[in-house]
# Entry
Amino acid sequence: MSLPREIEGRWTNGVVLKRDLFSTVERGRFGTRAGEVEAVLRRIDEVPWWSFGLARHLFGRERRALAIAGELGIAPPLLFAGRDALIRGWIDGLPLHIAKPRGEHGFFRSAKAALRKLHRAGICHNDLAKEQNWLRGRDGRAYLTDFQLAAHFSRRSWLFRIAAYEDLRHLLKHKRRYAPEALTAAERRVLAKKSLLTRVWMATGKKLYYWITRDMLHVSDREGGGTRLLYDAPRITARLKAHPQVRDAMVVAFPDRRVGTGLYAFVEGDLGLTERSLREFLAAETPDKAAPKAPEHLQLTGALPRTAAGEVRGEILELVAMNQVDLIDSLIAGEDERVLVARIVADRRNLRDRFAF
# Structure
């Protein structure tokens, strides 16, 4: 794949992290004066012509915000900013929806401190409702990423205060999900009260936003999964589970250079079950309704990794599907799970973006 001319010879492609109408984000290596470092590239040279104007606007917002936030130790440092390519440092950590920091009070203290630093610098993130925009570093601390909607304020105006309040409220929603026992009385009051602008947005603009993005453009950002994860994955999963030799199944999304968002099905099945028979079973969808597009990858396994309560560990399977297998180790619960996951990783299907980190 060709690169923007401004980073040719300095960037080595790795794995795609996200691809949508406004940019492609991928992990790789970048050559600096101090040597090659792990980094993340956002490029806008391949977006459709009709979304390029908005893509460039979002690109500029992230560049301005990262130039400040990256120096605060709470976000990736800005390594390069050109016309069509922006490169930020790599943070060794996991997105919140994968890390799931249940009961980790220290993480949320760190997240609140990071938010205070950001706001003192005059920046509001404006997109912290998405769990993938919070990272849990390997050091246990919280980091922020994806500053496309961030705004830099020169003074603490009423609009700044509202935006900062909403940043905090969204953080507390995550805290309520993963560490509700740590919420203070003051934090519960913030959670109970949305700002006036937010209430107006939810009653009017948000409905229009969903109509344009989901119904017209067929774009969704459900934890980075897109509309196929939202609409097709549940039907594919139900169909797979209807097969008499399938004990369980989970379908996750992964970013793909060619199709944008792909689906990867992990199937726990009986001995003798084959991928071919499963794909034929999927293709035999009842004719009274249009069948969803088949998953790009389908992997059979004798067992799926599970929690102590018996729930499939989708966060591990998502990393396998995205080929970010170097991030799995911190999630492994024990030696039995390590052996099971190693077998799944060794047999994984998505090898197009294979890269040794």
Summary: The longest strand covers residues 246-256. The radius of gyration is 21 Å.
